[in-house]
Structure formats: C-alpha cells, structure tokens
Amino acid sequence: MSGTVSRTVSNTVLPTGPVVRTPRVSLRVHTRTVTGVVVLLVVAVVLAAMALTLGDYRLSLGQVVGALTGSGSRAQQYVVVGLRLPRVAVALVVGAALGVAGAVFQSLARNNLASPDLLGFTTGAATGALVSIVLVGGGPTGTTIGAIVGTLVTALAVQALLGGAVGGYRLVLVGIGVNAVLAALNNFLILRTDLSTAVAAQSWLVGTLNGRSWPEVLAVAVALVLLVPIAVAGSRRLDLLGMGDDVARGLGVTVERTRVVTLLVGVALVGVATAAVGPIAFVALAAPQLARRVTGTTGPGMVAAGLMGAVLLLAGDVLGQRLAAPTQFPAGTMTAAIGGLYLVWLLAREWRAGR
Amino acid sequence: MSAGDVPGDGARLRAEGVTLAYEQRTVIRDLDVAVPDGSFTVVVGPNACGKSTLLRGLARMIKPAAGRVLLDDRVISSYGPKEVARRLALLPQSPTAPDGITVLDLVARGRYPHQSLLRQWSVTDEEAVRDAMAATGVTELAERDVGQLSGGQRQRVWIAMVLAQQTPLLLLDEPTTFLDIAFQLDVLDLCADLHAGGERTLVAVLHDLNQACRYATHLIAMREGRIVAQGPPGEIVDADLVRAVFGITCAVVPDPQTGTPMIVPAGREIRRQRREAARAEDPVGSGALGDA
Ligand SMILES: Nc1ncnc2c1ncn2[C@@H]1O[C@H](COP(=O)(O)OP(=O)(O)OP(=O)(O)O)[C@@H](O)[C@H]1O
Ligand SMILES: [Mg+2]
C-alpha cells in the first residue's frame, strides 16, 4: 500500500494463528481444526474398537486385537474379521461420504438445512436404485449408477424448484414435498415387482448395515479416495461463494465451475453411499454442523465433516444393535430418530432467532 | 467533454460498444466508456439506470452480449480469474457476510487472488491485511463478528477487504449508502486518500451529487443505460445536465466550501409547474431528455 494513506499503520500482530513460513512457502495451521480432527479420529477408533467387542458373542478388547492380528481362535476371527469388521467399516465409509456430501450441499446452498436427506436427494437416490433393481434386475453396479443418476436428477429438480439461495423454511417445505413424491414413487416401484425383489428392496429402503460386507466398503472407499480430495480442494472456493457470486468472482473464484464440480462430487457421494446401504437420514444434515462446533470454523471443513459423519453413523449403528438387544434397529432408523430431535431443536433455534 | 467523447488513451480499463443484459432485459446497449488512469471517477444517475450493471460489466461479473471490455489492452475474459483479481477489485452494492465470520477473516479473504496451495499466508498477505484494516480504521474490530457491527462499521470492513486485494483499479458500488454524513465523508476521504498517491484508479457509484462534484476528478452521468455527459464536474455539471439526468429543476451554484458545483433543487411548487409544462409539451414522457 502506498505511503499516502495518512492514518496510522498499527503494528498489532494479527490473531491469525500459527503460520509455517519458509521464503517461498507459507502454510497456515488452524490449531483448533487440527485438534478437532485428531479428537474425532480418536473417537472414531475407540468407537470402532467398542463396536468390535459388542454383540451376542461378547469379546474382550484383547480378544478383538488378537483376532485382528490373526492370533485368536477361528471362531473369534470369523466373528471379528468376517462379521463385525466389515460392518464397522461400512458404517465409517458411508458416514464419511454423507458427512462430506452434507458439507458440500450446505455450503453450496449457503443454508445449514440444505442437506441431501432433507432435500430429498437421498430418497431420489433410492428411487434411482429401485428403478435399476426393478427394471433391469439391479446388481451392485446397476444399483450404484441408478442411485447416482437418481440423486443428480433430484438435485437438479430441487435446484430448479428453489431457484438460488433461500431461507430455511422454504427449503424444508420443498424438501418435504420432494420427499413425499419420491417416497410414493418408491412404493409404487416396489408394488410393481414380485415378492422376493420387493422384500429385498424394502429392507434396503430402511437403510441398514445388516449383511453389508467388503464389496460395499470397497465401492464407497474408492469413491471417498477419488472425491474427497476434490471436495477439499474446492472448499476454500466454496467458502468464498458464501459472500455472494459477485464478491467471489471479484476475488478470482471460478464460480460456475466450482458450483458444478462440487455439486457433482456431493451427488456422487450420496449416490454411492445410498447404493451401498440404503437411505440414511440426518447424518449429512448434522455432521457438518457438529463438526464446525468442534473445529470452531465457519467454512465447510470437509475432513472434519467426514469424520463426524463416520462417528455419527457408527454410533447410530452400535446404538441400534445394543439399545434393545436382541431386537435390532436399522442404523437408518436410529439416525432418523436422533436426527429428528436434532432437526426440531435446530428449527426451534432458527425460529427463535427470528429468521 | 460531452457524451460519446471517449478518452481512448491512458485508460487501463475501458469498454468498447458493450451491450449488457440480464436474460431478456437489455440494460446497456452499445456503450463506449473509458476510466481515465489515476482518476477518481464517480458514476451518477437515477435508480435503475444501469450504474451497477456498468460496474459489474467492467469487472467481468456480466459477460457482454456484444462488444468487449478491455483491461490493460486485452479482453478481460482472456485473463485468468485470479490475474484479473490482482488488477481490479469490485465491492458490489450489497455484499453478504457469511454467518459468524470475524472482521479479520473477512478482510483476509481479500488476499485470495494472491494465494495458492503453498502460499497460504505470506508476510505480504499479513501486511496487506494489516494496512487495509488500519486505513479503514477497523483494526480494533478485528475479532468482532461482522454480523454484529453497525452499518457504517460493516461498510468499512468491506472496503478493507477490497483494499487488502491491493489492486491498482478499485470499483466501489455505492460505498456510502446507509452511512451517516460523518461516515460518508470518512469513506469519501478515505477514497480520496487512496486516490491521492496517483497509482490507484477509483470508480465509485454515488447518489449525492454534491459529494460527487466535490470528490470526483471525472464524473460520468448516466440515464437509461446511456452516458449523458462525462468529464470533470466543474466543466459538465449545470442545471441542464441535472434536468437531463434526473428530470428535476435546480440551480447550480459554487459550493461555498470547495467551489465545486453544488446542486440546489428548486422549491416544490416550481418543480411541479415545470413538470406539468414538460408533460404538456411532450405527453409521451421523455420530455426531460428532450429539452436538455
Ligand atoms: N440480476 C438482475 N436480473 C435482472 N434484471 C436486473 C438484475 N439486476 C438489475 N436488473 C435490472 O437492470 C436495470 C439496471 O439495474 P442497476 O442495478 O444497474 O441499476 P442502478 O443504476 O445500479 O440502480 P440503483 O441506483 O438503484 O442501484 C434495472 O431495471 C434492474 O431492474
Ligand atoms: Mg446500483
């Protein structure tokens, strides 16, 4: 800045947090984000260990570690590695996918209620998957493609219905409408099929981690590896979009491209996650917001949102299995119950804030 | 200087025959305009005449339907997005701050075009942000939530953000709206300071004609998407121009403080009579322009 600015130039140190600097490189370290991410990682690991010990066949932590490292009995190895580990892994990867997708959509819409489940994207993914199951007999690839296409179509339809960033209530109302229409369509699709397909489809529709195994884990994990880096790379630009298109463009953000790319990333994550386990409610809604509480940031925070999603879904599944054992609640039902309360609280707060 | 007379040289930013339109509504048709280098250019004109549209067009927010905008003699769209953002900054008319963002974070975002994956927060960034906050007097507010500031404070924070961008060209759309008279003068003085060094070119939309005449080195008067007159305020502002642009009857006298043109609107009764006379002459309603 030129020396003509007459006001005093202060020498205060800006409270921007630590920066790692060499002559050519400067990296900002968001201490609280790093702490938050580490805490979430630890929670995820502890929760996963707990999940591996719990069940009708109780195991100690030592036995679990033994089974994992290949020193336990065959039965223990079968229960831990064959049954529980894939289920835990599915919960983690699906939860992470939903958490990241939620962060993407919420910052795209500049609205904390704009999550794929509330807006009907998840139901749309189910519709796409059902169409594929009913019409062409499904199969994992077909279901996944169907779910992605269903999510994309729903997302585009909702975007057209909303037309830009809007307030919370209108968003929720449009979401209710879209969800109702798609749920009816899903029922219709199920009624049209033969009994065995219908039963399979119906059980998939409640969103359960039951019987999910390595193929599902692999599909979602691949999607995470490919898509999360794109989401992370785009998160700064998404954050800047929160100041409006003109400001963002003025700062050199490629607004349209950022929007399209991140929308596609979010859609693909929801599609893949839903294809793997069926529709899971509220993880995508709650994870980004809870993650922001932990990291104390305002931005999208993709990594923290993903970890929070993983923790939430795993916790939901553990609760669902143990709460009223031997009766088991599907993870989707559990997250819906907990998330529903969270949504009510959120709406009440927004209402009181007078928005 | 009169309408259509474009200073072609010495203008890093200019538009040639641009047509700017929103979907179906064409706001500006075939307009030539050049922003003189080192000027403090002020754009005035009635509501909805296309001032913001012109600024947005110049700052590549709207793609021209025809014609072209040139920045340093190259079509603006041929630059990389961050490259433009290092030469030209725009503060839109009503920017929105994200929920819960602090003043410092908002101002720091102005450094985005200078940053990259490996250059996230250089010493230059830090200095630019600190200087911008000091220049706008918001240093003390650094850790406050932008949403909880007064309108005037918020406006200064936004100006600090575009200042932190450190561009030679700065476009400000109504930087003084919503501010009390003291803050208005503060912001205008700040603009004059920024301009005084000579390296910076400022373009601002203002609604107060007297302030425009005081501060502008180059005035652009618009009406219905066209430039009615442009040039130094002392040379172009008279009663005829004000009537042509705003359709009001007034006297123009030297400002007792600065000597620049000062607009004193005629009394209500006289203005009503003139309006009726104009309507009788030209029932279609374009009278205000016709008798200029
Ligand atoms: N995003 C938009 N979409 C469609 N029409 C628009 C849009 N923005 C502005 N317009 C129209 O373009 C015309 C010029 O608007 P503009 O904002 O440029 O006026 P202005 O001179 O800046 O007015 P003001 O003094 O009220 O800010 C108006 O008729 C307005 O309705
Ligand atoms: Mg305007």
Describe this structure in words.
The complex is a heterodimer of chains A (355) and B (292). Chain A has helices at residues 31-53, 61-69, 74-109, 121-136, 140-162, 168-191, 195-205, 214-241, 245-250, 255-277, 283-295, 302-322, 331-352; strands at 19-21, 26-28. Chain A has 355 residues and is mainly α. Chain A has one domain: ABC transporter involved in vitamin B12 uptake, BtuC (Orthogonal Bundle), CATH 1.10.3470.10. Chain A has a two-stranded antiparallel ribbon with strand order 1-2. In chain A, helix 3 runs antiparallel to helix 10, helix 4 (121-136) crosses helix 5 (140-162) and helix 11 packs across helix 12 (302-322). Chain A is globular. Mean pLDDT of chain A is 85; it is low at 1-12. In chain B, a hairpin with a 2-residue loop joins strand 1 and strand 2. Chain B has a 6-stranded mixed β-sheet, with helices on both faces. Chain B is an alpha/beta fold and 292 residues long. Chain B has 11 helices and 12 strands. Chain B folds into 2 domains: 13-233, Rossmann fold (3-Layer(aba) Sandwich), CATH 3.40.50.300; 238-292, no CATH class. In chain B, helix 4 (123-135) packs antiparallel against helix 5 (151-164). Classes of the chains: A mainly alpha (355), B alpha/beta (292). At the A-B interface, strand 2, helix 8 and helix 9 of A face helix 2, strand 6, helix 3, helix 4 and helix 6 of B. Chain B: It is a peripheral membrane protein. Chain B: Its main location: membrane. Chain B: Pfam families: ABC_tran. Chain B: Residues 13-249 form the ABC transporter domain. Chain B: It is found in: Cell membrane.
